[in-house]
Design a protein that fits this description.
236 residues, 5-stranded parallel beta sheet
């Protein structure tokens, strides 16, 4: 990208930033800076994916959602590939087999246009999956040859653990120091104005406006379904 193209893109980005809420602008700034990895945590259903998708739509980015608890390591860049390379030393030239990894299609597609990649449920993924995702998040590359473009932004998210009844892995201090942690909350007014107006039936938004405490209700021991912003959208 030339200096002129970069300047034009920054000007366009600045104009689009006006469309974001204050929280979206904060998350976007961290992703754009690429110093540390944005990692938001909350109870299930509190619009973690929705805010990532909202930022992408308002900024004109493609949005990719990769739910790490539902994939294996081959989906995030650890599919092995054996190739042959020529190596020359004092004994001459010989061909040896070399192990590397196949770049997944979603990574190639992400590099074709400005994209936000959201690695969901980072702290619920299998160890191999989490490590592969963390390499991508921290190094912005897959293996040694494939690098993501500057216009590919990344974020991660996770659940709380005992507080929300999910099984999660605790990160060590070294990893936590590389993540920029935000406790993601969502009030009823923010949900209605920033998302539900465009995505939920007005009967639901009117109900939540009248009874904001109903937006999220903790599950009981006897109930598997409970009220969250996500479930209100499903109902709508």
């Amino acid at each position: 990208m030339t200096g002129k193209e970069s300047k034009l893109m920054n000007e366009e980005m600045s104009n689009k930033l006006e469309n974001l809420t204050l929280k979206e602008r904060k998350y976007m700034a961290i992703m754009w800076a690429k110093y540390g990895v944005l990692n938001i945590t909350s109870k299930p259903g509190i619009a973690k994916a929705a805010i990532g998708r909202s930022i992408a739509e308002k900024m004109g980015f493609r949005y990719m959602d990769i739910r790490l608890s539902m994939v294996d390591e081959t989906d995030v860049g650890l599919y092995p590939n054996v190739s042959e390379i020529e190596v020359t030393d004092e004994t001459g030239t010989k061909t040896i087999k070399c192990l590397d990894f196949v770049v997944p299609r979603w990574a190639i597609e992400a590099n074709k246009q400005p994209t936000i990649i959201h690695f969901e449920e980072l702290n619920r993924a299998q160890l191999q999956v989490r490590n592969a995702a963390l390499q991508i998040l921290l190094e912005r590359q897959i293996g040694t040859d494939f690098k993501f473009n500057e216009t590919v932004l990344m974020m991660s998210s996770g659940n709380l653990g005992d507080e929300d009844g999910t099984d999660v892995e605790e990160f060590d201090n070294a990893l936590n120091n590389r993540l920029i942690h935000f406790s993601h909350t969502l009030g009823s007014d923010e949900w209605i104005d920033g998302f539900a107006k465009e995505n939920c039936h007005n009967l639901i938004t009117s109900y939540i406006k009248a009874y904001p405490e109903k937006l999220y209700q903790n599950p009981t021991e006897n109930s598997k379904a409970y009220a969250t912003p996500r479930s209100w959208r499903f109902m709508s």
